[in-house]
Amino acid sequence: MKQDISSKPSFRSPIVFGPFPGLVAAESTRHGGVSVAPYHSLNLGGATKDTPENVTENNNRFFSALGIPVSSVAKSHQVHGTAILRVEHPGRFEGYDALITDRKNIQLAVTIADCTPVLIYDPVRKAMAAIHAGWRGTVGEIVKKTVLTMQQTYGCEPADCYAYIGTCIDACSFEVGDEVAEQFDPLHKKRNDEKGKFFVDLKAANRQQLLDTGLKEERIELSPFSTVIHNDDYFSYRHENGLTGRMLATIGLIG
């Protein structure tokens, strides 16, 4: 892959959040950073063997492109669980896969490289969430639990909320064994008899959790991209055998 370390960070802004002034939401690609192979080039994840200096510079570039100071970012070391953190101040946290806040000038962020990022915004209560949903988190219904936590914590009504389900491994690429497949609803998996394996649709499974909690179908946007099929533009942990970088999905409200 051609290096692009001199270019600006590349990211995608969800259309569904377009109507809301002051809301900054984006999903990075792998382009526009300083990291070299195999983390080329906009590696935003510290849990790699990339140099800390590269990761710091990439984060500075990415958030600068969004007009966000890095000092306002809230992240957590993710553990593929279902723990949810109510964020009161920016910083680095430990052990949470979902972050929620109703504070302005806090930019929530989750790292991804095949797992499903989900961003949620309630324009009535001005509350938001950033969720990392791998297959374990999806089975554990982290998305549903996050919406319910926003409801309990901030008084959010799911019908008022908007959501973006971001770029992750696609249903044609996420091959799993029976022990994983049996934990998913039949609607969200398909068996390939030739391979003797199931293929799971993480986007559909997490979308269903949003619908089950009361979000309106027309207020949910799905990324059309795949970390595997579109690997030239996105990092894929599985496709690149673990030697790859991380993207970020982020959401925050500027005061």
UniProtKB/TrEMBL annotation:
<dbReference type="Pfam" id="PF02578">
    <property type="entry name" value="Cu-oxidase_4"/>
</dbReference>
<dbReference type="GO" id="GO:0016787">
    <property type="term" value="F:hydrolase activity"/>
</dbReference>
<dbReference type="InterPro" id="IPR003730">
    <property type="entry name" value="Cu_polyphenol_OxRdtase"/>
</dbReference>
<comment type="similarity">
    <text>Belongs to the purine nucleoside phosphorylase YfiH/LACC1 family.</text>
</comment>
<keyword id="KW-0808">Transferase</keyword>
<dbReference type="InterPro" id="IPR011324">
    <property type="entry name" value="Cytotoxic_necrot_fac-like_cat"/>
</dbReference>
<dbReference type="GO" id="GO:0017061">
    <property type="term" value="F:S-methyl-5-thioadenosine phosphorylase activity"/>
</dbReference>
<dbReference type="InterPro" id="IPR038371">
    <property type="entry name" value="Cu_polyphenol_OxRdtase_sf"/>
</dbReference>
<dbReference type="GO" id="GO:0016491">
    <property type="term" value="F:oxidoreductase activity"/>
</dbReference>
<keyword id="KW-0862">Zinc</keyword>
<keyword id="KW-0378">Hydrolase</keyword>
<keyword id="KW-0560">Oxidoreductase</keyword>
<dbReference type="GO" id="GO:0005507">
    <property type="term" value="F:copper ion binding"/>
</dbReference>
<protein>
    <recommendedName>
        <fullName>Purine nucleoside phosphorylase</fullName>
    </recommendedName>
</protein>
<keyword id="KW-0479">Metal-binding</keyword>
